[in-house]
Amino acid sequence: MKVPKAFLEEARKKCAPEAECVALIFGISDTALSWRWMKNVAASPVFFKLDPEEVYKAIVEAEERGEELLAIFHTHPGPPTPSWEDVRHMRLWPVTWIIANVFDWHISAWRIDGGLKTIPLEFI
């Protein structure tokens, strides 16, 4: 998956350890073209919860631009590997899940595809 370097730069400025930071990433094929920062209504450093109406609005606006939901980005206060809760939600949202360690910015991407698999990321 290809993600603009501008997204990563913005994430580093925006995200803090106090609560998981979340963004929906939209684009075409495997190339991210836009993203929407979402409010973590749980305000937790170890999990996130999104407002369904905000998610719906972001997806509708992306579809109007001809884009689709490609990935869900969020931060962890540690290694960028899916938690058990992430894996449960990955089954409901079968897109790429990009996870960043909020302290050292090590990033990995994952999908549920017959099992948990890493996805290569390219920052363009």
UniProtKB/TrEMBL annotation:
Location of the JAB domain: 12-112
Pfam family, one: Prok-JAB
GO biological process: proteolysis
Entry GO MF terms: metalloexopeptidase activity; zinc ion binding
UniProt-listed InterPro entries: JAB_dom_prok, VirAsm_ModProt
Keywords, sorted A to Z: Hydrolase, Metal-binding, Metalloprotease, Protease, Zinc
Name recorded for this polypeptide: M67 family metallopeptidase
Native species: Pyrobaculum aerophilum
